[in-house]
Specification:
By secondary structure, the protein is mainly alpha-helical. The protein is built from two helices and two strands, in the order H-E-E-H. The chain has a domain of about 90 residues. Strand 1 and strand 2 form a beta hairpin.
Length: about 150
């Protein structure tokens, strides 16, 4: 290879290195923008959920005030121009104030069954058949800069 070709090769190599750095930076920027968007979107959703919770709490408090007022006055219903409030006794519900005070006879133990996939994979890899299982392979696309 003569001197000119060596020079051209060196220039081309430096251009290729620059292209790789540019590609890598563009990828980093795209990833950061995606993370920022997701973060801002999550933040917006959380803010809306908090706002919704505040408004629902206010609504429930006002409904409770109406129910209490109607009970104090002894009204079963109140009619307005476009709506009617009616008190209806709801079915009973149980409120637990302190779980520790509840007798043991009313407590049940919850058992959770989990599957040990690693152990099953090992057994199948060693040639054993495990009913209801199989090893599957998938393809993942890996993109690397040149």
């Amino acid at each position: 290879m003569d001197e000119k070709q060596t020079e051209l090769q060196a220039v081309w190599n430096s251009i290729r290195d620059l292209q790789q750095k540019i590609w890598s930076l563009k990828l980093d920027i795209a990833n950061l923008e995606r993370e920022l968007y997701a973060t801002e979107f999550r933040k917006s959703i959380q803010e809306k959920k908090q706002e919704l919770q505040v408004l629902e709490n206010i609504e429930n408090e006002k409904k409770t005030n109406i129910v209490n007022s109607m009970l104090q006055i002894g009204l079963k219903s109140v009619e307005f121009v476009n709506q009617k409030f009616t008190l209806k006794k709801s079915p009973w519900s149980l409120k637990i104030n302190d779980e520790e005070l509840i007798p043991q006879e009313f407590k049940k133990e919850k058992v959770e069954i989990i599957i040990d996939k690693k152990a099953i994979k090992e057994k199948i890899s060693n040639g054993e058949d495990i009913a209801g299982c199989e090893i599957v392979y998938s393809h993942n696309l890996v993109i690397t800069p040149k």
